[in-house]
Amino acid sequence: MRLRFLMPFLCLVHVAGGQSLTGGSSVMGGGGGDGGLVTGVIGALAGAGGYMNDDPVEIGRDIETRVFGGLNVTLQAAKYTHHTGKATTTSYPWPGFRLEGGASFTYRDRVMLSLGGGWGVNGYMLKLDTMVNSIYHSNTNAELRLAWHTLPRRHQPTQWSFGMGIGATFQQADDRYTDRDGFEILT
Q1: Positions of E strands within 25-160
Q2: Which of 104, 131, 128 lies closest to 116 in space, CA to CA?
Q3: Residue 1: which of 134, 183, 132, 124 has the closest Cα?
Q4: Tens-digit pLDDT profile for the chain (187 aa)?
């Protein structure tokens, strides 16, 4: 979008207001609130601690199991090669996301084995002359990690972990064909 199209919107910005995700008011005016989406999610996660069993055990466990998960927002730009060498293509960063999950098993607080995997969507934006293509492709990955933990010493709660892992990403080749006013693109 060119700057001259943004100027009318910039002149009206003083009347704009909004609510942030964390519950605060925007800088430009806007009403307050008692909490936003992020504040509510954090409060719910903090309240989940009451449902966990944290009573001391008489006999220590040999293997401690943990389940983990995550949601990541990614920003990537594609590196491309020219097939014909005649057209100049520009690549811009574009958002994507990843879902991850897995489990870890720790033996006597010293050796940890974790298995994890994820599924995500990578986004790329390519511009060729006046045409803009946003391209998404999905991929999955799997990882296996092995780590050794040092035990903390008295009056030094620092603990170190040393480990290694192996993983693989699984993705397929795909293509996209676009034809606009006789101009053809094969990506």
Answers
A1: 63-76, 89-107, 111-128, 131-149
A2: 104
A3: 132
A4: 444 544 554 454 444 444 444 444 444 444 444 556 666 666 766 666 666 666 666 666 788 899 999 999 988 887 776 666 666 778 888 899 999 999 999 998 889 999 999 999 888 888 877 778 887 888 899 999 999 988 777 777 788 889 999 999 887 766 777 787 777 777 6
DSSP for 132-167, written as a single string = EEEEEEEEEEEEEEEEEEPPPBTTB----EEEEEEE
The sheet with strand 63-76 has its strands ordered as 63-76, 89-107, 111-128, 131-149, 161-170
pTM score: 0.52
